[in-house]
Amino acid sequence: MTRSNLSFIREDLLNLSAYIPTPISENSQQLTRLDANESPYNLPSELKAKLALIYEQEIETNRYPDGSHVKLKTLITDYINESSLTAFKINNISVGNGSDELIRSILIATCLNNQGSILVANPTFSMYGILAQSLGIVTHTINRNEDDFTWDLDTANKLITEEKNTPIKVIFVVHPNSPTANCLTAKEIQWLKDLPQDILVVIDEAYYEFSQQTLVSGLPQHPNWLILRTFSKAFRLAAHRVGYAVAHEDIIKVLEKIRLPYNLPTFSQLASEFALQHRDLILPAVKDVMEEKERVYQALVNNPLLKVWRSDANFIYLRLAQNPSNENHDRIMAQLKQKDVIIRHTGGGLRISIGTTSENDRLLNNISCD
Ligand SMILES: *Cc1c(COP(=O)(O)O)cnc(C)c1O
Prior knowledge:
Layout: H1 11-14, E1 32-33, H2 45-58, H3 70-81, E2 93-97, H4 98-110, E3 117-122, H5 127-134, E4 139-143, H6 153-162, E5 168-174, H7 186-194, E6 200-204, H8 208-211, E7 225-230, E8 242-247, H9 249-258, H10 266-277, H11 279-282, H12 285-301, E9 306-308, E10 315-320, H13 326-338, E11 341-342, E12 344-346, E13 349-353, H14 357-366
Parallel strand pairs: 1-11, 3-4, 3-5, 5-6, 6-7
Antiparallel strand pairs: 2-8, 7-8, 9-10, 10-13, 12-13
Helix pairs in contact: 3-10, 4-5, 12-14
The structure holds pyridoxal-5'-phosphate (PLP).
């Protein structure tokens, strides 16, 4: 095939570097996959069998999915109302094909056509910047404080007041942050409360079930806040791609307007409904993961060659204590990979998801830092 000159493609996309997930090969069952912060546990087999039966008996494959998501939204409101003083309703919820889809909808709704830019603090979840770039939206990045990965609020405030060309319309915070695993501090939460109302504050709580910390109760007083959650982590449904947003109904209305009409496949809706209905059998494993995290943390923190940060989530972030260069971190990753252990090198450090006890042992027995 002759090479196209691709002159019909937007030039800014030719240089975009995408998010590259670890490829899943045929022998992936043998790999210890500690790179994507998923739950290490499949659904309990009795639940999976029931779900398969639902597929067999209830799904009409020739029909489009329910594009209103009413049942799923109703179950989500029940779930969030358990931990909130406010009674959220289904018009406070929008569901997406993973929270990634919702992030893109938020960007389209706020900043497209040079209407605004976004602000993030690195290191953080890379999808905000990647999706913004794919839409031609400018991302302002500031660096987190190196000691505890809190926001540099003075620099953030300065950028917010000084950016006049494409004003900052959205700030993305993660609670707890990925890859650094720290929750927002009281000071940062106060800052979010004091931000001008014409900025949308997106609080990504992908790891809520692990951290048990949420700002959902602050939504009624702060109509410029939006909370993102996902079924990809504690609910063990990463395969099904389901995320949701909780916010003021006026924001939700817009997100609903711009999403694709059938964004969520029928089986993904059923699986996430089913997971919510059986959460008493799914979520208790969070406790096991968090106990394992403490064990792995204690083992790693005792290694003088490593600098390891405390974690409010199901993963641990670390750097080499001396010479934390990309090459040295790559070398640790490559050595682990030779032993079939996959971790993630990101944000100038290594992020290690917590696996099962034997997977964690495999990591601890094989990580070598010299
Ligand atoms: C894993 C993760 C998500 C989840 O994304 P999905 O598209 O729902 O799988 C969202 N935000 C952060 C910060 C994450 O780490």
